[in-house]
Amino acid sequence: MRNAPGPRSGTSSAAATWRASPTRRSDATAPASAASAVGTFERSNALRERAHALIPGGAHTYAKGDDQFPRRSPGFIERGEGCRVWDADGNEFIEYGMGLRSVLLGHAYPPVVEAVQRQLQLGTNFTRPAQIEVEAAEEFLGIVTGAEMVKFTKDGSTANDAAIRLARAHTGRDRVAMCADHPFFSTGDWFIGTTPMNAGIPKAVRDLTLQFRYDDLASVERLFAEHPGRIACLILEASRGEDPRADFLPGVQRLCREHGAVLILDECITGFRWHLGGAQRCYGITP
Hints:
By secondary structure, the protein is α/β, with parallel strands linked by helices. The protein contains 10 helices and 8 strands. 32% of the residues lie in helices and 13% in strands.
């Protein structure tokens, strides 16, 4: 049975589990109620003031910003081990979000730390490729069997932006169809233009992105009917926790093929979680 992942942003990703810790710097004692489940945030609050004076939004990653979390959330994390993290004031939390869903094995997982240490000793960021890049690509393609080639990127936004650009180049079309029920795909204009934070994105660019509803095949059919021969690609997540109806994803794949559009499956969350080979293995589709 799969545990449904939470959204990438907009909710707290750390559950407070106050306990006296040897790393704790706060003088607060254990609270008497769940309403005050942690000690003070004195050092975190001081760091917040410094951060907001130097960094737009107080964080280099938007989804980690203060406006994405309740006020009593931890402000700055100093270290983590397994599923637990400690903030700048020594408060201990269970981190439900696990690095915005990217830390699958837990923080400071010893085999990962040891592998990184070994590689760092060999040097990093050479002018030419390293052997490990070929080995990682072979390993990935041996797991995600529906892929023919792989290009590693720094984050999901970069990967999705590249997929959109490739789809437009391949089809010679401009319009993108995205699932309106999935909260985040990219920092690129094609997606941010659909959000309330679309300042600075030209209307001509915003108008190129269309939207459909998840698990609603009729809404996908309508888009193709309303924009015949103009949709370059359709992008969605395979699932946000609940399994789709049995006919939805195969139906989306069929419609994309019938209309010459590229199907892009965003597996930043479902990849390696639903199945080692991705949710595409679970649902029997090949994007």
